[in-house]
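In keeping with the milestone schedule agreed at the kick-off meeting, the structural modelling team has produced records for the first pair of proteins. Each record is given below as a sequence line and a structure-token line. The laboratory manager (R.T.) confirmed that both were archived under the project's standard naming scheme.
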Amino acid sequence: MNKTTGLILCAVIILTACGSVPPRKEEMRSTPAPVIEAQATSATPTDEPKRGGYLEGDSPGTDVPANLDDTPNAVPRVEPLHRFANSPYTALGKTYTPLTTVGKFEERGIASWYGKKFHGKRTASGEIYDMYGMTAAHPTLPVPSYARVTNLSNKKSVVVRVNDRGPFLRERVIDLSYVAAHKLGIVNNGSAEVLVESESVMADNNIQPIEISDSVVVTPLKPATALSVSNEPAASGNVYLQLGAFKSQQGAESFLERMNVEFEGSGKRVELYHGGDDMVRVHIGSYATQDEARAIADRLQPRLGFKPFVVLH
């Protein structure tokens, strides 16, 4: 190798080495990270309005009349008691004995309201429920009668006409119409602690409710026979759970509407059953076997506050 060739080879080696040297730290640059805005989580407040304190699908609707606050209170007047709506009855495992006269009545507890799912449906009195009327449902006050309901948190007060039975769940004492709840300021929360007071004295009634003993109401009669020990399967479609028993067809139908809402989406039918006697029962089903029905009854007990019993049709 001559001197010229050596110099050229040396220069090539030096240039190649310089091209492979990494840049200095201060000259290193990376692609900037994209800016990602924080996403709202379930704990992040939003500007969406609350749905309100009502069951899914039981909202006030979109055609709410204007000036609901101007709706007048119910005006107490003497009315004859409904012949059947004041008879003792059993609902969700609890027996109720309605009052047939009203003296001084006071009750403190939780009030709730019911809306468009029941609007236009029959009440225990046989009247049509109007969510924009000043009415209410109560387990034991005479039907019809009048009550003053006071919201204890804001002292607002209304007078309602009791023409329906209920509520039967969650330890509530009265179910108000939508407009009555609106005037009391409890629609958004769904419930409030209230004081319920009788608002009028009922006149003597010549029409007396039919008297039936608690044992008749509580004990199911044949062919709806309570089953407690048998594990034998019944014919498919014949096994049900009993939720209530009523002397009145209207009372049973009103209760049926409420249970249809309570068990909506369960895949089971809530229906009336006439067992050949003078009682109208509310059943849910059907179930393939008695064992399946008893298992469902066990799961329903914490929800209902009692354990439904198995009946066969």
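The second protein of the pair:
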Amino acid sequence: MRANRIRPARRAAVGLSVAALAAGVTTAAGPASAQPAARPQAAPAPAADCSAAYRIEQKLTSGTTWRMCWRYDSKAGLVLEKISYQPKGETKPIRVLNSARLGQIHVPYDDGSVEYDDLTGFGFAQGLVNLAPGECPGGTIKTVKVPDAWQDPNVKGLCTTTRSRGHAYRMQGDTANKVFQAQGKDLLVYTVNQVGWYEYMTEWRFQDDGTVTMNVGATGSLSYEDYDAGDGRGWPIGKGAQAAKATSHSHNVFWRLDFALDGSTKNRVEQYDSAVSAPVSGNRAPTTKTTRTKVTKELSGDAKAYRWWRMVSATGKNKDLHPRSYEIVPGTSTKYPGRSYTKHDLYVTQYNACEKFASHNPGCPATQPKSVDKWVNGQALTHPVVWMNVGFHHIARDEDQQPMPVHWQGFSIVPRDVTAMNPLTPSELQWQNGHWQPRS
């Protein structure tokens, strides 16, 4: 948090980068269209979608395998593409996402003096930092070639590792006199990008049950330029009644998800809303009725109690013949009402190759609006793209210095009918699909 977001040693270099961005220049590290390359294995394996240097493949101890490609964009930073999920019992990978990346980090200050678009206007991608081995325990740190780099373009900045997350499930068997339990494992992919005094930790967690969780954590330093705000909008930092104040501000983080369930981008969007009514005569409890709305045109949506959305495959079904889908699960958010593009939690737009950033979007024709809210104009959805907005209002505290603890914001997408049963179901319970007793 700082009024002056650039450390002095970087001021000139960032100026050049911002000038290039203003001109609409963008470059990317990694293969734009790499040729498929087979992996030498004893058993047949799915064809690779990218070269080995840009491939991430991890089989977790539960038997689930995640596969994806990565590249590094000159503004968005890490971009993950062709993401597929293969739990045990599935004979081939299930494609989930065509691409996943950040869509913007918008940072307005409470005193109205400044606001920043860190991805398109403040060199987020160029701020990729080197990671020490201890920051990627048990994993691999990949070298990233950073486009338009301020210094050395080769940064050891991409960690891929695995982490335990605690119980995946626990069940006390009624008849087996046995506890069924398993500890979940995640594939963790993350980078750290420095923007001024902040350091953003962008992490993607791919769980063995098919869930994907996206988080951005802000850490680093409280900037001394933000002290002595003197405007009633800062929190006292330091000793006594006359302590310096740190200016409060918001972090509005956008993610852009291009789904491709079962390999097709022709997915369907559905919204579910439930209404709870008072008990009717003869009932012991209130009744809840859930309705489904098919979203056929572009959407600006707001999360609220008893509402959720899912992306439904147009081509694939699980072994129970139910359409595969992924449910969107919003995280805790403080919605910022100060800009039109931050007034909603979720946007669904029709795919347009030049629509890459939720605000101050470069690259599209000059006549086209520059923010995601303006792209929602009633167009039919045949290739839907999801934009998720999660806000955090940062009011500083004494404990933020020094260094500042990580504060996280994010959301998840959760498989809904992707597999016929829990993909981690133990073999003894495989017969319990749709009934609780063995059929005679």
